[in-house]
Known about the structure:
This protein is of the alpha/beta class. It folds into 3 domains: about 5-35 and about 215-355, Glucose-6-phosphate isomerase like protein, domain 1 (Rossmann fold, 3-Layer(aba) Sandwich), CATH 3.40.50; about 45-210, 3-Layer(aba) Sandwich (Rossmann fold), CATH 3.40.50.10490; about 360-550, Glucose-6-phosphate isomerase like protein, domain 1 (Rossmann fold), CATH 3.40.50.10490. The chain is about 45% helix and about 15% strand. It has helices spanning about 5-10, 10-15, 30-35, 45, 50-65, 80-85, 105-115, 130-145, 150-155, 170-175, 195-205, 210-225, 230-245, 260-275, 310-320, 335-355, 360-375, 410-420, 435-455, 470-475, 505-520, 535-550, and strands at about 70, 95-100, 120-125, 160-165, 180-185, 250-255, 280-285, 300-305, 325-330, 385-390, 390-400, 425-430, 455-460, 480-490, 525-530. Strands 10-11-15-14-12-13 form a 6-stranded mixed sheet, with helices on both faces. α1 (about 5-10) crosses α13, α5 runs parallel beside α11 (about 195-205) and α13 (about 230-245) crosses α16 (about 335-355).
Amino acid sequence: MGALERLVELDAVRRLKDRDASLFSDDIDQRIPIMQRLGWTDLAEKAPGRLPLLNGLTDALTSEGATDLLLLGMGGSSLAPLVMERIIGTAPGFPKLHVLDTTSPVQITELLESLDPEHTYLLIASKSGTTVEPLSLYAIIHAWFTRAGMDRHEVGRRCIVITDPGSPLEKLRQRDFMRMTLTAPATVGGRYSALSMFGLAPAALIGIHVPSLVNRAQAMERACSAPAEENPAALLAGWMADSREAGRDKLTLVTSDRFRPFGLWVEQLVAESLGKDGKGVVPVIEHQLPKPDDYGNDRAVVVIRFADDADLAEWSREVAAGHPVFELTVTDVFDLAAEFVRWEHAVALTGVLMGVNPFDELAVTEAKSATNAILEGGSRDVPPATLDIGGTWVTYAGALAAPPESPTDRVSAISAAVSTAEDGDYLAFLVYAPDDDARIRPLRGACARLSRESGRAVCLETGPRYLHSTGQLHKGGPNSGVFILVTARDRADLEIPGKRYTLAALHRAQAEGDLVTLARHGRRVLRLDLPSTDPDVLALLAADVASAAD
Length: 550
């Protein structure tokens, strides 16, 4: 029986719409938390009621002369706004959105030096209200405002909170006289929250026409209630599950150029929802079109293209000759909202077919605990470096043993790690560096070359963003990844008011917490600790990665 037929037999579409937690688990103890995470299924239908408040807030900020809007959030609290800004963009006359889903002191310092505090406003987004990254950055930016001569009331007027009702962040808002709280339903998990205040508020504030987004999302929401055989989400879920059963678990996303940022959001939704219990689907974002014969037999390809993208249509036909392809056509950038809805329903239904709970993320919590332990003095748990190659400190951890002969250069060290990948494995570069084009583009090109030459899927992730995204898959999914963790000893740092540790210490502890957790799960990990994340240093690393492909 195919996956789509199983969805029909389970009456899965109706049960999902009715928020029937028994669809996802036979365990009565698991059903209650699952039921508390199913509030996303009608967000588009309810969205129009939120628009008057957002319109009023948008008018107020533009009239006050806001030119820049900083969004402090991680994972589900930040990825939908980031994707909307990159695909749709900021409208003329509205503040530019800067998504700060990082703890890199280099990136934060560079950004703050470029901004005028008099025209900068702040969105602090956290579902739980306890997320360490946005709270740490809020403390830093509050101090930045204060140094500009603002009193606490003026600082508070520039700060808006997005959180669940009654969270600790709401209490902090009251204490610090922040402007207002925009609440999201407590029954909506972060990665399913694109059409809640977490996604809609930033979109409205940068001038995106939210009614157009909502209209597309509502149409798709209705379509996702149709019988499985004509349901766009069920069709995608069935295809994903059938592909995975056939050994094609590398879900490769290829899009028209302007739609490419959507991959960041899909990546989190797929990896964090389905990567657990030793199972998983590995999302792979393509940034350039490979040759169809570059792919191994573990690929399943989703093509999302604009109707007039003839080049991608032709490429899709060529790939379909040897690999399963699921093609989606979008009319314009506002179809992004419809895709949010399609994929949320599809991934939830894929979880049913795989027998996993798509609404928890235990390995993410485990990595957070390891980070906290390191910050509290637990650095002895971090596997030590055993080799210094020209200022790059090399660590072998988990199931990756040091080669019998110590490599004398980075190319050899990387090649040795890559060579441990077997059929069906993937490679993941986990890079703790500022997410800017000058630093990341060379690495992206090198990863593409390595993928072509090795025939394996190669993922490039920036930390700590991936900890709230693919990090769940890395630890909770199948043990099929080889991980190259890239950190650096940058000198830049920022004090975090009220904390015993600095931002650089937090940034490093997050990487090392993940290293500890990956090793604990028996993953193959090579750590390369660079002298800095200067663009020229990362360019040299990219050259070595490319050479390792030869």
